[in-house]
Amino acid sequence: DIQMAQSPSSLSASVGDRVTITCRASQNIRTYLNWYQQKPGKAPKLLVYAASTLQSGVPSGFSGGGSGTDFTLTIRSLQPEDFATYYCQQSYSTPPTFGGGTKVEIK
Amino acid sequence: QVQLVQSGAEVKEPGASVKVPCKASGYTFTDYYLHWIRQAPGEGLEWVGWINPKNGGTNYAQNFQGRVSMTRDTSSSTAYLELSGLRSDDTAIYYCARDSFKAAVTLIVPERFDPWGQGTLVTVSS
After folding, report:
1. Region B10-26: what's the mean pLDDT?
2. Torsion angle, CA of B17/B3/B24/B117, rounded to 10 degrees?
3. Do A89 and B113 touch (CB under 8 A)?
4. Among B47, B110, B116, whose Cβ lies nearest the Cβ of A43?
């Protein structure tokens, strides 16, 4: 199985900050990488697929990048509604696997 | 709009079985693969398996082989996850999620999960 490692596991940031979350795959997954946002008590929500394509309805302040083994999710200017846990997921091979999550908290 | 609606919480004793429904609406149920993904309390996400609602074909994660069964009822647009031999470490929220991949074609690797159901908390405790 492909292992997905996210860093950091948590971070504290202020409204308006630029935030970058990193995801590393244990092998080359080209651009088969998705990002999800999960708020407390809610189901995950798809933000970005194929490494850099924004899902319909997702604010343009989110962006994804990377290929191969290293990927990033960037929030250009953190908004109050962006405080959540973010997960990456590889869609290169079965079983699909997720990173351990990055919790973005208010500073 | 596309929606997946799941049932409320379940409490089961160790060794029992649980059957969790997921009702789809807002699209043709047999057009897209459906997945089950679970999340233990305070933990990350673990893929359980998929079902093709069109023909009932399934693929289960190795960790669940022999204990899991995924079925569907096309007349009610509902998919079901059944897990047997429940253990305390099966305590988790179980989500259903739709793939973007069309059910008319054999799925090799899931594409992406969207949308998700609201989840069903299954608690295994004596």
Report:
1. 98
2. -10
3. yes
4. B116
pLDDT over 90 at B108, yes or no = no
CB contact under 8 A, A36 and B46: no
Residue B54 has pLDDT above 90, yes or no: yes
Residue B103 has pLDDT above 90, yes or no: no
Taking contacts as CB-CB distances below 8 angstroms, the residues of chain B near A93 are 109
How close does chain B come to A55, measured CA to CA in Å? 9
Closest CA to A105 of A35, A34, A17, A36: A17
Query: A64 in contact with B at a CB cutoff of 8 Å?
Result: no
- Tell me the average pLDDT across A40-59: 97
Q: Give how far B124 is from chain A: nearest CA, Å.
A: 19
**Contact in structure between B33 and B51 (CB atoms under 8 Å):** yes
The answer to whether the beta carbons of residues A2 and A27 sit under 8 Å apart is yes
Q: Name the 3-class secondary structure at A8.
A: coil
